[in-house]
Amino acid sequence: MYPGRSLITPLVPITLGDHPPIWCKLEFLNPSGSTKDRIARFILEKAYREGRIKEGDLIAEASSGSTSIAMALVSAQMGFRFIAVMPEGVSAERAMMIRGYGGEIILTPKEEGIFGALREVQRLGREEGAFLPLQFENEDNARAHRVGTAHEVINQIPGGSVAAVVSGVGTGGTLVGLYEGLRDSGCNVVPIVARPINRTSFGDVECCSFSARIPGVVDRLSKIFREDRLPGLLTIEVEDDEAIAATRKIIAKGFPVGPSSGLNFCAAIEAAKRINGPIVTVFPDRMERYFTTELFSTYRS
């Protein structure tokens, strides 16, 4: 993904047993390894075209990893400086990726969770003049998926129609954008939230989650995700253990994904029991950023 260009990721049918195929958007194939490339490119290129940022300017974002990695990559390509603000405790792999793209990292106290990171980002905006993408409230987050990802899905899915779309909610941009884009195309689509259970507090190790075992899935933080803009919204709860086990099975089938992919897939299987027609979900990110986490504990000697 270079400035002014976009990458179309595959949509493939996958099964893990006796259930209808689930149509999975392989977003981990984006250049930085996650679906967050879409929002990083969309937000920063739009701000550049509008004259709100220029080469050499500072960009700052609060993120547990994937958004910051994507912002670091796009900033490197477009000549911006980038600072990622993350609570202590995120996996070392994510920090190394950000630094590899030339980004800087500010760690905030673990006990303050994502809220401490958000406060620090606001300070950088006030005192350092940083441009703030504000992923949890920026409507361009959802718009990137509405005009991009959803359009790709419609062109890729056999028959050109989708019955339901399933996603965990972090910023909410993926689910909201896909739902609105698919509705724009005429699909009478059911939006479904995949929600992990056995939750921990916001301040736990992965900082942005109500499930510390499924990074990037957040409760009550997004200003983009609202039930009133998703008519017919369903919520499907998935045990953390089930999501992790499914992630390992998906990896064993040759798809190098992270824990949120297992969460989404489990919820999509349950959705297929309730809804007739093609079910679409997203595999948001790649496995490499989780090598030192629980996901790979069974593979370490």
Please describe the structure with a list of short key phrases separated by commas or semicolons.
301 residues, alpha/beta, Rossmann fold, six-stranded mixed β-sheet, 9 strands, 37% helix, 16% strand, TrpB-like_PALP_sf, TrpB-like_PALP, Cysteine synthase family protein, pyridoxal phosphate
Lateral strand order in the biggest sheet: 1-2-9-6-7-8
Beta fraction: 15-25%
From the spread of the alpha carbons, the general shape counts as globular
Q: Report the C-alpha radius of gyration, rounded.
A: 18 Å
Could you give a short description of this structure?
By secondary structure, the chain is an alpha/beta fold.
Task: Describe the protein in words.
With 301 residues, this protein is α/β, with parallel strands linked by helices. The chain has 2 domains: 11-33 and 139-299, Rossmann fold (3-Layer(aba) Sandwich); 37-128, 3-Layer(aba) Sandwich (Rossmann fold). Helix content is 37%, strand content 16%. The protein has a 6-stranded mixed β-sheet with strand order 1-2-9-6-7-8, sandwiched between helices. Strands 3-4-5 form a 3-stranded parallel β-sheet, sandwiched between helices. α2 runs parallel beside α3 (92-100). The longest helix is centred in the middle third of the chain and has 18 residues, at 139-156. The relative contact order is 0.16. Mean pLDDT is 91; it is low at 200-210.
